[in-house]
Design a protein that fits this description.
about 220 residues; alpha/beta; Glutaredoxin; five-stranded mixed beta sheet; two-stranded antiparallel sheet; 7 helices; 7 strands
């Protein structure tokens, strides 16, 4: 560009031609820059697409610590009998007459919890009808809910298993906190969390299959 400018000064008889050449070079430079920018973004998009197509490998999550849960006293003799408790007192999971307990954490005013309730009821019915799963028990834990709200929830959704009110969030804190709804599978002897599903159960058969596999473990 500098040579052209000098030439245009030293050859004033060709000002238009030289200026045209200079303008043409500038135009080509701008076009080349545009093409480079376009190619850069095309390459970037290809790279992002390739990354999205890769399998989503995530590092294995650390195994949650065993839950040290003390449940409130059952609110009825029927609940006491179903859970296999010796008395109507607060109890640890190890006091249950069960190998595995499924705890449904919910809030009585949560719409997603209401949507999940019939699914958990269905799971309860399937487990009850399977003689090989008789040592699997169900409990509901109502987080941040009033007794009147829990009673209405139990009545509206015909919940067939015992529900305990987590008044001070102690139960949910014992498992590291729980969103609502969360369906959690725990071992009663060791408090180990074998499975935890947050949200509405969408794959019922898959969840049941996983429960059966967990139950078969020694």
């Amino acid at each position: 560009m500098f040579v052209l400018m000098v030439t245009s000064i030293s050859n004033p008889q060709y000002p238009f031609r030289l200026r045209f050449i200079q303008t043409d070079i500038l135009g080509r430079g701008i076009q080349m820059k545009k093409k480079c920018i376009i190619k850069y973004f095309q390459a970037l998009l290809c790279l992002l697409f390739a990354l999205l197509c890769l399998p989503a490998y995530a590092p294995a999550a650390s195994e949650p610590a065993p839950a040290q849960i003390t449940m409130p006293a059952p609110d009825s003799p029927q609940a006491q009998k179903y859970l296999g408790l010796k008395d109507m007192e607060p109890f640890p999971l190890s006091a249950l007459n069960a190998k595995i307990v499924i705890i449904e954490f919910f809030n009585a005013l949560c719409p997603h919890c209401g949507a999940n309730a019939p699914i958990v009821n269905k799971l309860y019915k399937v487990v009850q009808e399977d003689s090989s799963l008789r040592d699997v028990k169900f409990m509901g834990v109502a987080i941040g809910s009033e007794k009147s709200e829990v009673d209405a929830f139990r009545k509206n959704f015909k919940v067939p298993f015992p529900i305990f009110i987590d008044e001070n969030f102690a139960i949910s804190a014992a498992v590291g906190g729980a969103d609502t709804p969360t369906t959690m599978v725990l071992g009663t002897s060791n408090g180990k969390v074998y499975a935890s599903l947050v949200g509405v159960i969408k794959e019922f058969d898959g969840f049941l299959k996983e429960l059966i596999a967990i139950h078969k473990k020694p």
